[in-house]
């Protein structure tokens, strides 16, 4: 009963708060316009619901796992835009776990109220899966580090105020032992951001170049050369959030509704009458339910104050494969209607949608960009290696 009441409370908040502009922005994922993204972020912040997973003393809600699950699901089903994960789900937990009091005072309020956007400077050309080989160097000079090097695939670097970066502070040690974790102001002289346009036609990825960028030593998280520990802690949180089980529930629910509708070919049939399509839809639905249980296990581990470790790798693999399976079904369901939009998009023409059912919009571009789900946050092949070693003992 309490859960039902809570669900009603979340629903009435969503009805009163989510605007059409916000729902439209949700279609853009990481490409969300900063002003709309921030408006949604602030609405949650003002309601006290911006960081359910954080400890209460740092702004968390203290919800039960069930409440958190209800909240995530209701937001996804209502079509709420994604919240940028770099502050709330990545550097935020690192700050409240390993950051100094001064760092927490400086950064946590801006992450919570959405006024400060972050990006993640981990990957480099040649150092993605083999992240510990990263070369961006930070050399001590008085009270500063001087940073030189390059990051790549930096999502939203062009919109971010700060970047959290892995840098090399010791070349002589084992690769993992010579890395430090720095917080760098994106306005620092010597930072250059260059765009990468991805296969969905949007700009959310970048290269970030550092030339003699001075970063106060006080911006280092924890100990020098211990950055790998904080980096791995962050990746556990990142992998859990990437799985986006609630988003898959929304997308599958909308696909199921479409499958019940009449196909506009005059025969009166629907996709649900197609035995092969219906079987795949049911199969995907069952797998999604199993995935929800796995997610609950991982969240329970977080709630107990533990780190989900290998289960986060499992969740990342299964969650991202689920996203791709649903994106493929959506393209197949949209069939002919999915094509004109993508052609216009790739040609860089207007984004005016072609005639056709609404669910077909962006079906192909989402499918195309969705190839990346199994790459970012550590590729699924690497996660399978982790599972093979740590879970199966191979
Ligand atoms: C859309 C998108 C957004 C991203 N956003 C960010 C971001 O904001 N910040 C950031 O720091 N990074 C970001 N990344 C980078 C991402 O983390 C890396 O792309 C990823 O870790 C893979 O590294 P790589 O691209 O260097 O590929 P590589 O490491 O070169 O891998 C190439 C292929 O080889 C496979 N492979 C490599 N090593 C092994 C192995 N040992 N065993 C089996 N297979 C292996 C990989 O699985 C992959 O299929 C993003 C990437 C994408 C695509």
Task: Please give a structural write-up.
The chain is an alpha+beta fold and 394 residues long. The protein folds into three domains: 2-83, no CATH class; 118-226, Butyryl-CoA Dehydrogenase, subunit A, domain 2 (Beta Barrel); 243-390, Butyryl-CoA Dehydrogenase, subunit A, domain 3, CATH 1.20.140. It contains 13 helices and eight strands. The protein has helices at 2-17, 20-26, 34-47, 65-77, 85-98, 101-113, 227-242, 245-260, 275-303, 310-334, 339-346, 363-369, 380-390; strands at 118-121, 137-141, 144-152, 162-168, 179-185, 191-197, 203-216, 220-221. The chain has a four-stranded mixed beta sheet with strand order 1-4-5-8. A four-stranded antiparallel beta sheet has the order 2-3-7-6, with no helix packed on it. Strand 6 and strand 7 (203-216) form a beta hairpin. Helix 5 packs antiparallel against helix 6 (101-113) and helix 5 (85-98) packs antiparallel against helix 7. 38% of the residues are buried. The model has no long low-confidence stretch (mean pLDDT 90). Residues 119-123, 128-129, 153-155, 205, 372, 375-376, 378-379, 381-382, 385 line the site of flavin-adenine dinucleotide. Flavin-adenine dinucleotide binds at residues 119-123, 128-129, 153-155, 205, 372, 375-376, 378-379, 381-382, 385.
């Amino acid at each position: 009963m309490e859960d039902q009441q809570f669900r009603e409370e979340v629903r009435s908040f969503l009805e009163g708060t989510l605007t059409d502009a916000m729902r439209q922005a949700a279609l853009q994922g990481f490409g969300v316009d900063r002003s709309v993204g921030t408006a949604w972020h602030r609405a949650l912040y003002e309601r006290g619901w911006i960081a359910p997973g954080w400890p209460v003393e740092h702004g968390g809600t203290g919800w039960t796992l069930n409440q958190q699950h209800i909240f995530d699901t209701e937001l996804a089903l209502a079509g709420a835009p994604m919240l940028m994960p770099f502050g709330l789900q990545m550097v935020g937990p690192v700050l409240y776990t390993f950051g100094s009091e001064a760092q927490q005072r400086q950064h946590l309020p801006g992450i919570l109220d959405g006024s400060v956007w972050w990006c993640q400077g981990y990957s480099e050309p040649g150092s993605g899966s083999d992240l510990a080989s990263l070369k961006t160097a930070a050399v001590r000079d008085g009270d500063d580090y001087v940073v030189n090097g390059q990051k790549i695939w930096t999502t939203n670097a062009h919109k971010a105020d700060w970047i959290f970066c892995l840098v090399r502070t010791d070349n002589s040690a084992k690769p993992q032992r010579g890395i430090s974790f720095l917080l760098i102001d994106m306005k620092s002289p010597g930072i250059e951001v260059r765009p990468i346009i991805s296969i969905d036609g949007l700009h959310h990825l970048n290269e970030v170049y550092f030339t003699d960028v001075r970063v106060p030593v006080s911006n280092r998280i924890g100990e020098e050369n211990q950055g790998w520990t904080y980096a791995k802690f962050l990746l556990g949180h990142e992998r859990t959030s990437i799985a986006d089980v609630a988003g898959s529930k929304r997308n599958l629910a909308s696909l199921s509704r479409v499958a019940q509708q009449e196909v506009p070919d005059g025969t009166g049939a629907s996709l649900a009458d197609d035995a092969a399509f219906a079987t795949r839809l049911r199969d995907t639905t069952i797998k999604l339910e199993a995935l929800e249980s796995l997610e609950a296990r991982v969240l329970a581990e977080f709630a107990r104050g533990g780190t989900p470790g290998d289960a986060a790798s499992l969740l990342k693999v299964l969650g991202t494969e689920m996203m791709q399976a649903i994106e493929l079904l959506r393209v197949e369901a949209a069939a002919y209607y999915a094509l004109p939009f993508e052609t216009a998009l790739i040609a860089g023409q207007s984004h005016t949608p072609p005639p056709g059912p609404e669910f077909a919009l962006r079906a192909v571009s989402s499918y195309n960009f969705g190839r990346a789900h199994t790459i970012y946050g550590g590729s699924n092949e690497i996660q399978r290696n982790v599972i093979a070693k740590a879970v199966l003992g191979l």
